[in-house]
Amino acid sequence: MRDAPTEPRPGEAAPGRVTAAAGASPRDPGGARRAAWPLAVAAMAYNAWVLEFLLPTGLDARHSYVSELYAADQPFHVLFGVVEVVTALLVAAGAVLLARRAGSDRWSVAGQWALVAFAASSVADVVVPMRCAPSVNRACEAVNPWHTATSALAHAALFASMALMVTAAARGTRWPLVRRWGPWVLAAALVTAVSTVGPLFGRPGWHGVPQRAHLLLVGVWLALLAASPGIHRTRGKGRHRAR
Prior knowledge:
Blueprint: H1 31-45, H2 77-99, H3 106-127, H4 145-171, H5 176-194, H6 208-227
Helix pairs in contact: 1-2, 1-6, 2-3, 3-4, 4-5, 5-6
């Protein structure tokens, strides 16, 4: 014979129901889902450099930086520059939408604003491009001070965003894909980024391969951010089991 059902006390959850943890909404209010679209598109657009295999750029992908595609003297600099700016705007839009959603903790919000800084630095990369392509023009300077500075800022903001978001994922129940794959993507992205600095120290050659691998990893990172947000599943305090 079953026990007679009892009415829940004031402020107590009914038996068998799951309640949201304090300060969090059980359903995503829409910000994360809206953010998924620009981030997903940006993940693909960030690797628009693959068009170099279809266009007569004259650059060797093994030994050239991707930024040489939109160097001032290159035939397709407008095309690749526009794609870079549009991609940065998509990243910024997705990051702002994520930062404004309910239930975000300070680590993830800081990571999302670092992503906005990454987008701004990427736009600056296009505003102050390389003057020429050093991989095909020996008279061209390998280090353009302004462009090198904006690229360094972009990388600093990107890795700050990754580290902060991985920390946020490890501390909470959101961002399941970031929690699982984020540390691996961050580590691989760091290794490939460091592997591209040869020309800055007078040792060019084969730096194009790790850089393009790095860009693929950034695309994977943006895809993880696009795919992770969703239902906020709570654990521990916020759950009440049936008896």
